[in-house]
């Protein structure tokens, strides 16, 4: 079956897990980088795109060096901006504020943060800019979920049904059209 292959790799484990890290540039662990490199060892792609945040770009640069490829950074693949929640744990945030965010992140974005639809638009634009080459994107769980919503038609609640831990690899086959649609052809966690 034809169609463009898009692999979405969640960045490596970070030094301080369990925090809302949207735009916060948190370093990743050496073990996390190794897990990401191992995850894509048998994955075929001709292009690497990365979020510019260090937890993604360090992984992308390691993969690129091993394959003699260049990394293209694209800020559209950055995580959702969590505003006032940046660097905090879920336990630090009042449940009365957190639950509405998960139920409807457009109506209840984090204070000073980004709405789900803004993330979805960024990711849709980034996907539209890709060419036909098989591509690996090193990104974050939010953009991966936005890609599932946009390409597969999942609603916001359905995209949370996917477990996307650090180093998760989601592979999609994109079929062109208006709008483009995709099939999930692999999920490795």
UniProtKB/TrEMBL annotation:
Gene3D superfamilies: Phosphoglycerate mutase-like. GO terms for molecular function: phosphatase activity. Coiled coil: none annotated. GO terms for cellular component: cytoplasm. InterPro entries: His_Pase_superF_clade-1, His_PPase_superfam, PGM_Phosphatase. It holds the Pfam family His_Phos_1. SMART domains: PGAM. This is Histidine phosphatase family protein. It comes from Allosphingosinicella deserti.
């Amino acid at each position: 079956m034809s169609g463009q292959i898009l692999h979405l790799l969640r960045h490596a484990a970070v030094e301080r897990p369990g925090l809302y890290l949207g735009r916060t540039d948190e370093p990743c662990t050496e073990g996390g980088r190794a897990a990401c490199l191992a995850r894509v060892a048998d994955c075929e792609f001709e292009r690497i795109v990365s979020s510019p945040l260090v937890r993604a770009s360090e992984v992308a640069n390691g993969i690129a060096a091993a394959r003699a490829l260049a990394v293209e950074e694209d800020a559209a693949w950055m995580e959702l901006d969590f505003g006032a929640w940046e660097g905090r744990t879920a336990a630090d945030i009042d449940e009365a504020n957190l639950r509405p965010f998960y139920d409807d992140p457009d109506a209840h974005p984090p204070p000073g943060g980004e709405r789900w639809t803004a993330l979805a638009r960024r990711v849709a634009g980034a996907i539209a800019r890709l060419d036909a080459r098989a591509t690996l994107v090193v990104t974050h769980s939010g953009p991966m979920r936005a890609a599932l919503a946009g390409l597969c038609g999942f609603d916001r609640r359905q995209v949370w049904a996917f477990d996307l831990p650090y180093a998760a690899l989601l592979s999609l086959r994109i079929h062109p059209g208006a709008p483009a649609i995709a099939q999930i052809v692999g999920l490795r966690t």
